[in-house]
Amino acid sequence: MVLAGLSILPSAAMRPFAARYFAGEELSDAVAKLRELGAKGHTGILDILGENVTTEVEARGVLADYIVAAKSVKENGLEAYISVKPTHFGLTISTELALELYDQLASACSELGIFLRVEMEDHPTIDATLEIFEALRKRHDNVGLVLQSRLFRTPADIERLAPGPLHIRLVKGIYLEPAEIAFTGVEDIRRAFFEVAKQLFERGAFVSLATHDDILSAELEQLIQREELGSDRYEFQVLLGVREALWAVWQKAGHPVRVYVPFGRNWRAYSLRRLGKNPELLRAIVKNTFRRG
Ligand SMILES: Cc1cc2nc3c(=O)[nH]c(=O)nc-3n(C[C@H](O)[C@H](O)[C@H](O)COP(=O)(O)OP(=O)(O)OC[C@H]3O[C@@H](n4cnc5c(N)ncnc54)[C@H](O)[C@@H]3O)c2cc1C
To answer: Exposure of 136 by Cβ count < 10 A (0-12 exposed, 13-18 middle, 19+ buried)?
Structure first.
């Protein structure tokens, strides 16, 4: 309800609520944020905001922007890698186009010594995204994928992936999927995350545990300890603006914590998804409204 109201706000009115979730509109804002996080001991992930591009010209423009961003990571000596949504590279236009653009970016990143993450979006895009990832893995050793624990299909998808080194960011999944194909209860999604993490570790994968769930992370910490997993096997990943206090707890316990730093002008869709997850939102809106009044 609150979110529906927020989604019809003009960008200028929405921006105060959204600002904590992205570094700014320019690459220089993201570089500054990554540098600031680096000084606090965090590695980073650079993402250009945007999705669902509808023309090939636009998708190729996104590739050009990503190449500039990757060069900037290198030139500034940042401990960060690049992350791209398939529909930002034109997946909804054609799988071949998205694959071609990922392939070019993976080559550019490889020359710069930078890792590239293929993100995962809603369920109609999953088969094509897996196809792209498998093709990329044959040609590059600097690519990884995102998998979503809420989906029933994820354990079988892992089994179907070709043998070889595997670098997975495991998330619950931000897209609300139908009950026929996905867990919908908090407990079920949490349990599935834990089980998939175990499956990935058993397979020898490097797993980026991307969550802000302290109940889940406590279980994951026990698993890490029990299996004696080192920082060559896992890291925690978090989103800019979400539960910073938890990052500090993990860092103090000796876990690597990598922060997702999105930037760019297309911040609305991403920020709305983040705001939808923020329990403080209603309180913040009421406070802000009264303050303005
Ligand atoms: C680095 C990273 C990359 C991601 N990439 C993808 C991707 O490619 N595809 C995809 O589908 N999903 C992605 N996600 C999002 C993920 O799927 C979840 O939607 C998101 O992480 C919230 O789930 P959670 O595990 O933190 O658990 P939740 O149960 O949602 O949250 C745990 C706790 O964190 C708090 N919290 C969570 N989000 C917020 C917020 N925005 N503001 C304030 N408090 C919050 C909750 O209130 C709760 O207390 C990514 C997440 C991270 C951290």
So the answer is: buried
